[in-house]
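Schema walkthrough. Field components (list of strings):
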Amino acid sequence: MWHRSEPASGHASTPGIEAPRAAVSAHSGARVGLALLARLRSLLALVVLMAVFSRFSAVYLTWGNLVIMTQHVAVRAVLATGMTFVILTAGIDLSVGAIAGLSGVIAGYLLTQGLSVSGHLFFLPAAAVIVIAIATGAFVGSVNGIVITLLRIPDFIVTLGMLYVARGAALLITGGSSFIGLGGTPGHGNTGFDYVGTARWFHLPVQIFVMILVGALGAFTASRTIFGRHVYAVGGNVRAAITAGIRVRRIKIAVYALSGACAGIAGIMLASELSAADPTAATNYELGAIAAVVLGGTSLFGGQGSVTGSIAGAFVIGFLNDGLVLANVSEFWQMIATGLVIVVAVGIDEFQRLGSARLTARRRLRATRPWREGG
Amino acid sequence: MLGRGARRGEVRADRPSSSSRTPAGDLAPDRIAIEAVNVTKAYGAVLALDQVDFRAYAGEVNVLLGENGAGKSTLMRILAGEAVPDSGHVALAGRPVRFRSPRDARQHGVAIIHQELSLFPALTVAANIFAGHEHARAGLLDDRRHRALAAEILAHLDERIDPATPVDALAIGQQQVVEIAKALAHDARVVIMDEPTSALSNAEVDALFAVVRGLIRSDVAVVYISHRMDEIFRIANRLVVLRDGRRVAAAPARDVDMDWITEAMLGSHERAALEHMNAARDRRPDRAPDDLLEVTHLSLASADATRLLLNNVSFRLAPGEVLGVYGLLGAGKTELAESIAGLRPGASGAVRIGGAALPASVPTRIAAGIAFVPEDRQRQALIPTASVSDNMVLSSLARVAAGGVVSPRRQDLLTAEMISDLSIRIGSAAQPILSLSGGNQQKVVIARALLTNPKLLILDEPTRGIDVGAKAEIFRIMRRLAEDGLAILFVSSELPEITAVADRILVLSRGEVVGMFDAATAAEADVVRASVHVAPV
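Field assembly_structure (string):
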């Protein structure tokens, strides 16, 4: 992974080693524990959630229910994976829900209406349709990135605008209704689109495997590739990234393209599951994705966070919502609970970060002024 | 408010007669507007001020001089209530005071004008002048009164600025005048100005000086900090020189000359330490004949295109040579370094390495062998959220990766090598970069530059904010790298450092090359004199 700043308290105090040596103290054990707790916060929250809801609902902890809830999480987790890259660069992408809707509609159009080339109607195979739908997402995302970097319009504004444009385009293509029956016709040679949303591998929905694949690829890209390092650097300090020779514009365009591609994948997952392309699909999903990323410990200021954290965050939100449904809590209370969990979880994180920063500063001071405080 | 000052100003329009001076050249004690008495202030292990006495007299421009790190800003901040002295105190008109905050100081009539102006760009001049203590009528803002009062103050300053103009429509020099007007609206008796001319054109400087003269006519005490000798002689009534946190000299401006200032600022203390490095330096008699870097006709306009930050700069640099770039603040040193590093795409002229002209893009220039260590470590170099190791390999990730995938093992090997090579003192390469001292942070940034396998290393003020021991180490590293054949461009505003390390010294003033000296034979006073030369407009 991106070498996260480890608590340095584990090191033996060698002469000549500076500041962190001061951290060696009776508190160091507790500090390591706290830091670990902060990193595993989402997982911990998940365990607590599951323990609580298992008391309200007998089915909550059954295998069947866990699989269903995980399937529900899959789409949000895929969106959150792409969103993580954007937020790591200190950006934001409000258009992913709309892009997911547009990609689904593009797939639906190609499958049900076909392509008319000089009077002939062509139907592409399902695999090609899927590739085109994902490419559409990546293209729309890169338009976001290009407008943000080249025209220097704030990311919030550009992606907010794209939210409306992409949603409008999707409605325009369908004329306001949905494309239904995406299973394809054998005569057209385009069957199989609904496989992603309905088939099972090893008794598990394929969507879960899509989530695992996208999440694993995302986590690897963020933590182990040159591109990933550049993403963290751009978010950590953009001026330093420029000085270090990183092509910042390219990185920014790439993260929005990546986020758009993930939205395309999410759009296919949704359309495939229902075998219908609804132009209003995934409305407001961008907010859920941002919530998952933030809950997963990624800083909105950029440079800090992880894809695995975001996926854990998606699980927390999903399992909380489904748990509340099973516990027969009204939908309105679900929204209130989700909101509170996000704010409280991030609040705890910020509080803890601030506290440890202050602690470090105080220790450094003590280390440099032995005559004042007796070393 | 203004009336009182102006009246008193009438009475003593000129300088006080010599009869009111004490034998030491000091004025009568009742003329002291503000003073720091035996003030000491430490930041961590660094003693910024060591038992300093400073007096600013009413109706005079009291100039505070000193090199970077001499303690000028700390003293200024203590006078303005932004910092509290560890011992000693501040006295206003002879009475000891203890400012709780800058606001408190303002209420006592002490205003400070920082280099970075604290104006609200979207608000009008009048709104800025009265921001925070607005006049109201029936609970509503009395804008008419604001405008009238603002106009009165500005007229007093001889400035034709409409109080209804938004501040961001003004030139920087005029914005500075608005800051001064703001101070006067607070009834300031002491106005502290920190490098007020560093971003101004010549004409703006003249206008500002007219305003400053107006201030002293109103019997305000002006505390003025600047690096520009030529300006100091135009405006100063009185000079105080700080060096290494101590007051080393003070005199009326009319009694001193450039040599006096140079001697007071540089001293013999720090020079002794550097001299010994100078002696140890192995000057290369057989300098490689082929130049590595060739800069021709490099020019760069300011962002608002009103003046040239660099004007037709040309020079050559050979492998194994250390070229020092010296100049005052605003001379264009950093702009030169950044243009060569590819950070200023607007620069015209050519930068050649080994004969080939290079496009102005940082990655291309790094690939061509130019590595750059910027002046402002925190803002331009460090990724605060990343570890020491990740900061170090940032510019050379391709060296530790295969097919775009980084190998942590190879990264660890490479950073470990660099850490021992530059003797960076850390516990682990995975620790946060911000947990290191300034000196070790700087070494990490230098390591990042060296890992790109450069032919030319540009160091912009590499010793800023680091302690004396780390400075000496960085100089040793520089000499060693030069002996290994690296060309080094060493930008610094500290002349003793340059003369100790460089082979040649290029002197800039207002963006132009005004001198090229051989470091072995140049006299420091000559270099300083060249640097204050004002290029003909």
